[in-house]
Specification:
Shape: elongated
Mean pLDDT: 83
Strand order of the largest sheet: 1-2
Number of strands: 4
Radius of gyration: 19 Å
Structural class: mainly alpha
Distance between the termini: 27 Å
Number of helices: 8
Helix content: 55-70%
Largest sheet: 2 strands, antiparallel
């Protein structure tokens, strides 16, 4: 069972799980299994995906992972199933991952959207000599509906496609 819809679309980003990946998955499993129950609950699983992939999975993605990692007489996802799930997730790739990382760097207040002040703050740190006019133009270019808020979708529409295919 594929965890990501449209897996064929991601084929150009597929990669195999390395021993280093496996060690990282086991380490994250151990960190998230704070009660040492030998499985991850639904909430533990969400935290593990945030730690490994940098985003909080949706309810439906979490449900699919819980279902795919289910074993009889276990209320959660045990270690070996977790490693397998995360390996599949890693090999499937995420075409939005780079755009999401950049968006998160801009979203300093963790609001889930960007404001002009977020753009100013980031550009001040990475390009302090950039004219204010250029920052304003960049923000206006991304703020499609001119409401002063840039959603991830707006952000990804502008920069995500090029990043996911690089």
């Amino acid at each position: 069972m594929s965890l990501c819809r449209g897996a064929a679309f991601y084929r150009n980003e597929e990669r195999k799980m390395t021993s280093g990946d496996r060690k990282r998955f086991v380490s994250v499993f151990d960190q998230c299994d704070v009660e040492k129950k030998a499985y991850l609950s639904r909430e533990d699983l969400k935290v593990s995906v945030v730690m490994l992939f940098g985003y909080k999975p949706s309810k439906s993605e979490t449900s699919m992972m819980m279902e795919a990692g289910a074993v009889p007489n276990c209320p959660g996802v045990p270690l070996e199933q977790f490693v397998s799930l995360m390996g599949r997730k890693l090999s499937a790739g995420d075409p939005y991952e780079k755009a999401r990382q950049i968006f998160s760097a801009f979203d300093l207040h963790c609001r889930g959207f960007l404001k002009l002040e977020d753009f100013r703050s980031v550009f001040e740190r990475v390009a302090p000599r950039l004219p204010e006019r250029t920052v304003l133009e960049a923000f206006r270019h991304v703020d499609h509906d001119s409401d002063g808020h840039v959603s991830f979708k707006d952000f990804e529409d502008v920069i995500g496609y090029g990043l996911s295919n690089s």
